[in-house]
Amino acid sequence: MAAQRKASRYVVPVAVAGIAAATIGLVPALAASGDPDLPDITAQQLIEKIAASDTQTLSGTFKISTDLGLPAFDGLLGGIAGGAAGGEGSADPSAQLTKLVSGTHTLKVAADGPERQKLTLLDGEEQYSLIHDGDEVWAYDSRSNTVFHEKGGDESGPAPEKELPASPKELADEVLKAAGDTTSITVGGTANVAGRDAYRLVVEPKQQGSTVDSITIAVDAATGTPLKFTLDSTSGGKPVLDAGFTKVDFGKPAASEFDFTVPKGAKVTEGDQVEKEFGADRGGEHGKAPEDLEKAFGDLGLGGLGGADANGPEIIGEGWTAIAAFDSGAPAPKTEDAPKEAQGFLDALGDKVSGKFGSGTVFKTKIVNALMTDDGKVYVGAVTPQALVDAANAAK
Question: pTM of the prediction?
């Protein structure tokens, strides 16, 4: 229903981590006793097993560690998101969940089908809880004793549904077909995750120039539920994303798990109040660039931020080395014009580059890199900085 779609903006981390866990991961081989001995299985059969999984309920604990190769920015991102969502101390998920983009965190999760999910982020004696129950979303930050509440009410009508494969085998066929000549998909042995036997599905780019080294998903041998996911970069070192279940139970959580009562003295902020005060003004005079970035990342499959339409960015190349290019419509921002607290972060993040295209700055992470030229052109992708420079040069 429409109300559930509105709520889903904030419960994606819950649904993903609680039901599929397909975008978070943990370093393989947690079992001290060695990998389990399981029947042989092909990559296609394992993909079919994932597609056929009907897991609707579970509860558990997992850890997530993120290393994007960036300078420390917990305070910076929290301040930016907090300001956009209503200031510091806000329980708005858009302010709180930025914590997951760096460092190591422990979370507890519970899921009871598509109607109910709960995620609790533990931080010492403090905790942050996000609860989706039917058409309502509640969030509570114990540190600031603040509550965020949103009740569904979007009357825009049902969203168009994409045609889905009719069977797990069809889905597996489509995945393997989409991988084509650019991707290797194999079964890389077995593992033990949170006391459960699992197969390891390994996805690796065949193309040179991608920043992705490999993606490994541990799939529960009994249920087909993904239990962990490891994203490694070609730059080496710690995984970019390293998290996964340390404890999991596929039983139905108690209904009381999703109950929420506003704590005494807590300040409650309604979601429509945040939208009214901050939503309309976030884009401002330079609102076009964030929209284009959203389209660019969507086309590259980086985070599901949206897809390009006829007016979207140009896609250069294909597969793992695809680059989205667009004109931001404005000169590149100068670091010295940024807020004082952000200048050091931006200086550490960006490298000055030049070529036939002129000059610009490459903003880099271990996975996604972006080149912004001084005249406002943007090139972004999960590729090396040199690949971005080459694309900019070729465009001239």
Answer: 0.74
